[in-house]
């Protein structure tokens, strides 16, 4: 009868989602992975030494405005938005990137079924809308 040497690798996966506040994506991911003991179901028993890999997907939900330091929500894949155009211009219409002016209108929030101005700046969502509008006004004033 033949002999076989067989290496069997047992893999188990359990996913969890958390929201953490940090100044960088890397630090947020470090904190999220460190919560594995608390977030795993009680019957998922594994020692950290057996964990060989972490796979993380991160999505930034808020930003601290570099202009004023205020934290504000930013546009994400799950943000309920509308493009009806009632809150200002289409910033891309008639620009060199879009000379025909046919870009979609800028997105704004839908809160409880009602269109609401977006809290982020359309050109750079790291900035809040107020600081972005101030920067745009300064650019126009300085030509």
Annotate the secondary structure layout.
Elements (H helix, E strand, L loop, with lengths): L24 H10 L1 H4 L22 E3 L6 E3 L7 E2 L25 E4 L2 E3 L3 E2 L2 E5 H14 L1
Antiparallel strand pairs: 1-2, 3-4, 4-5, 6-7
Description:
There is one protein chain. The chain is an alpha+beta fold. The protein folds into two domains: 9-58, no CATH class; 60-142, no CATH class. Helices cover 20% and strands 15% of the residues. The protein has helices at 25-34, 36-39, 129-142; strands at 62-64, 71-73, 81-82, 108-111, 114-116, 120-121, 124-128. It has a three-stranded antiparallel beta sheet with strand order 3-4-5, with no helix packed on it. A two-stranded antiparallel sheet has the order 1-2. The longest helix is centred in the C-terminal third of the chain and has 14 residues, at 129-142. It is elongated, with a radius of gyration of 23 Å.
Protein traits:
7 strands; two-stranded antiparallel sheet; 20% helix; 143 residues; single chain; 15% strand; alpha+beta; three-stranded antiparallel sheet
Put the structure in a nutshell.
The protein has helices at residues 25-34, 36-39, 129-142; strands at 62-64, 71-73, 81-82, 108-111, 114-116, 120-121, 124-128.
How much of the sequence lies in strands comes to 15-25%
SSE string, helices as H and strands as E: HHEEEEEEEH
N-to-C terminal Cα separation, in Å? Answer: 87 Å
Structural class: alpha+beta
The major pleated sheet works out as:
3 strands, antiparallel
Uncertain segments are none
Mean pLDDT: 83
So what's the overall shape?
elongated
Summarize the amount of helix as a percent range: 10-25%
Spatially, the strands of the biggest sheet line up as 3-4-5
What Rg is obtained from the alpha carbons, in whole angstroms? Answer: 23 Å
| Count of extended strands | 7
Give the count of helical stretches.
Answer: 3
| Overall tally of domains | 2
